[in-house]
Structures are given as structure tokens and as C-alpha cells.
């Protein structure tokens, strides 16, 4: 009986590699094996055929193996040096993990890439309120130093230039958008209609 159990265990161990459509009674076992042993092995094979490997929904990106020591580099590190001029969205520093944190006018992506939010000049600095953090920021003009004092407001780019020509300045002062213009026309029509209704109501004879 111990021989039968050992044989059943070995066959059950290798059952996961067999096809689900394999029939035990179809000549796979010799005829000298008894019916009880056949039934036991059949149940073990059916159980083994139901076993499946677990496949997870996510996988790391390409070149994620650790057994290949000649894989290509990931091109990490500094992309723009101190004082370099950058544009909006330009990458400043690529890293694995947050070794450098985003400072003023900068942000960080899902892969810890620090990039510029405003056009300006790169600054690498430390903040006294966060002494353990190394920060990367973008200064709006070349002479600007970071960090800005904790008690002062942050500088923001207004996106406008002063107009020196008085004629152009007057045009800009009186300029309105299309939406504002049509809104003004609608209000004028409503006011004219109200005045007409009032005049019509005042001229009606009393009953």
C-alpha cells in the first residue's frame, strides 16, 4: 500500500504538466493496476490539472532583470547645471528615488524626474527650514538667488510687458474681448427694452 501511495504522490506532483484532456482510463496506466488505484490517481490528476500559475497584472519596465550585468545605462543624473537656462517642462535631474527634491518653480514626476515649471535659470540649494533636503529650483531672472526668504511672498511670472507707446497703451486699456463685447450689447438691448416698456406704460390712459 505504501508503494501505491508513493506512486500516487509522484504522479500527482507531475500532474500540473499534463494536459487537461488526458484520460487516465485511456491506456496511460498498465492494466495490472487495480480499479481503486486508478480512481485515486484519476482524482489526483484532476486536482493537479486545475492548478494554475498566478500571473500578476503589472510588470516592471524593460531591462529590469538583475542577472544581466551588461545592461544599458539608464542615463540618470544631472541634465542642467547650476545657472543653466531652461524652458517650461525641461528635465533638470533624473534619479531613482528622491535624492533631490523640487523647489521653487519646479516639480517632480512619477519616476522622480525633476523638471521646470517656469522658464528661468537652474538653482541647486538647501532650505534652512528643511536642512536634510537638497532642492532644485528655477530662478525667474539671472540675479535671483534661492531660496526666497520664508517670510516673503513667492515671485510669480506675470507674463506681461509694459507698453511705452501712449497710443498703444490707450488701445490696450480700452480693449475688451469678444465675449465682453457681446455681453455689453445684450445689456444695452435689455436697458433699451426696459425704457420702451416704461414709456409705453406711462402713455396709456387711465381706466
From TrEMBL:
Cellular component GO terms, alphabetical: mitochondrial large ribosomal subunit
Gene3D superfamilies xref list: 2.40.50.100
Location in or out of the cell: Mitochondrion
One Pfam family linked to the record: Ribosomal_L27
GO MF entries: structural constituent of ribosome
Chief localisation class: mitochondrion
Any GO BP annotation: translation
UniProt keyword annotations, A-Z: Mitochondrion, Ribonucleoprotein, Ribosomal protein
PROSITE patterns associated with the record: RIBOSOMAL_L27 (PS00831)
NCBIfam families linked: L27
Family: Belongs to the bacterial ribosomal protein bL27 family.
Protein name: Large ribosomal subunit protein bL27m
Organism of provenance: Lipomyces starkeyi NRRL Y-11557
